[in-house]
Write a structure and sequence with these properties.
The complex is a heterodimer. In chain A, the strands form 2 sheets. A 10-stranded mixed β-sheet of chain A has the order 4-3-2-1-5-8-10-11-12-13. A 3-stranded mixed β-sheet of chain A has the order 7-6-9, with no helix packed on it. Helices cover 20% and strands 27% of the residues of chain A. By secondary structure, chain A is α/β, with parallel strands linked by helices. Chain A has one domain (3-210): Glutaconate Coenzyme A-transferase (3-Layer(aba) Sandwich), CATH 3.40.1080. The chains are: A alpha/beta, B alpha/beta.
Chain lengths: 218, 228
């Protein structure tokens, strides 16, 4: 599967998790693609630079460069929209008024703690809203291909990249499987690739378990 | 009372070593004309508080190129490669804060609050050296309020007294910064008479604003262009 296709598989699966009426913040990268798969769900998109009710990306016809998303791309707004300042916007986030944050990650450990802001040995000087979103959203869904370009698993025993916070995220949607984080560790909710849990465990480097026993297919 | 001044008149309001609060997220909501006036002064050693340092060759990035910035406090500098290089060579100090912490610290600074406890960044590198306490069973860190010597604000409209309204996401950090500067300069696209703005829709009351400057920039397609 091409990497672009994998990204869309992940985005589409995450869209299934979102429900009518929810306030949702989509991070940069794969999370942004989720908006393409919302279909007729009434989900209200928040962007942390001060807008609730974000619409599609702007076109040449309706471009207003004051009006941007958190990735600094020109966007539009819907009829239901409201604008507010950055302190109020992060009050929404930190105060638990955002139902779901969908975030990209570099790593997630077996306790559901994520790293998504700094790469070791690289002078990355940006954190943006990542830590506020991890801390404050009611539910955090993380999105990434399961394996990095060099083949290493992004689901790890212990983070080797810098942590984004101590909160346990709820769900990790990868191109291979969907993982739910429980007190006992990550559990596979669903396979997205035709691969056995034994094969996947071998690739990841530790034993994985299903959340519920998979239904036998006769 | 009329707070409207010619843009060149504001140069004298700055001095070397000042801490400047600059609104804006990317270039949206940035006081580009005020920044251009700062470039005409010989002041230096500025500490700039802003989400990021402008965009390549635009906004605060011009101040950086001119070597006027000693320290930057903000949340996202990765996009600005030259600033990252200057930081790694020790030529630029950078204090990185989560975006929500930055916004709240400025809000506190303007509201007479010394600081606040937040769960954001607990257990991370950005919490190192910060006081931690447990409130109702959860871990929080203390973040100090931020104030400025001068705040440079970008709004859509001002009346001559300095009441401000904003446009879409160009609002961002501006309303808080307008409360947290000893001197507050508002650059606006349009200046109207007192009474022309509906009091129900004023976001920043004139009490916070000291000077109003007409912006020389306008939006042309995907750029802010100096046009006056």
């Amino acid at each position: 599967m091409l990497s672009q296709d994998k990204r869309h598989v992940i985005a589409k699966r995450i869209a299934e998790e979102l429900m009518d009426g929810q306030i949702v913040n989509l991070g940069i990268g794969i999370p942004t693609l989720v908006s393409e798969y919302l279909e007729d769900k009434e989900v209200f998109l928040q962007t942390e630079n001060g807008l609730l009710g974000m619409g599609p990306l702007a076109t040449e016809e309706n471009l207003d460069i004051d009006l941007i998303n958190a990735g600094k791309e020109p966007v539009t707004y819907l009829k239901s929209a409201s604008f507010f300042n950055s302190a109020d916007s992060f009050g929404l986030i930190r105060g638990g008024h955002v139902d779901v944050a969908v975030l990209g990650i570099l790593q997630v450990d077996i306790n559901g703690e994520i790293a998504n802001w700094a790469v070791p040995n690289q002078p990355i000087l940006g954190v943006g809203g990542a830590m506020d979103l991890v801390t404050g959203a009611q539910k955090v869904i993380v999105a990434a291909t399961l394996f990095a370009k060099d083949g290493t698993s992004k689901l790890v025993n212990k983070l080797t990249y810098k942590t984004s916070g101590i909160r346990r995220v709820e769900l990790f949607v990868s191109d291979y499987a969907v993982f739910k984080f429980t007190e006992e560790g990550p559990r596979v909710v669903e396979m997205l690739e035709p691969i056995s849990i034994e094969e996947l465990s071998e690739k990841v480097g530790f034993q994985l378990e299903y959340l519920n026993s998979p239904v036998e297919v006769n | 009372m009329d707070k409207v001044v010619e843009s060149h008149e504001i140069r004298k309001l700055f001095k070397s070593g000042d801490q400047i609060l600059s609104g804006g997220f990317g270039l949206s909501g940035t006081a580009l004309t005020v920044i251009d006036e700062l470039l005409e002064t010989d002041i230096t050693d500025l500490t700039v508080v802003s989400n990021n340092l402008g965009d390549l060759g635009q906004g605060l990035h011009k101040l950086f190129i001119q070597g006027k910035i000693k320290k930057a406090i903000g949340s996202f500098f990765s996009i600005n490669r030259e600033a990252v290089i200057a930081w790694s060579k020790g030529e630029l100090e950078i204090e990185l804060l989560p975006q929500g912490t930055l916004a709240e610290a400025i809000r506190c600074g303007g509201a007479g609050i010394g600081g606040f406890y937040t769960k954001t960044a607990v257990g991370t590198e950005l919490a190192e050296g910060k006081e931690e306490r447990v409130i109702d069973g959860e871990r929080y860190i203390f973040e100090k309020a931020i104030k400025g010597d001068v705040a440079i604000i970008k709004a859509a409209k001002a009346d001559r007294l300095g009441n401000l309204v904003y446009h879409t996401t160009a609002r961002n950090f501006n309303p808080m910064m307008a409360t947290a500067g000893k001197i507050v300069i508002a650059e606006v696209d349009e200046i109207v008479e007192v009474g022309d703005l509906d009091p129900e829709y004023i976001v920043t009351p004139h009490a916070y604003v000291d000077y109003v400057v007409q912006s020389k920039y306008s939006k042309v397609g995907s750029e802010y262009v100096e046009s006056r």
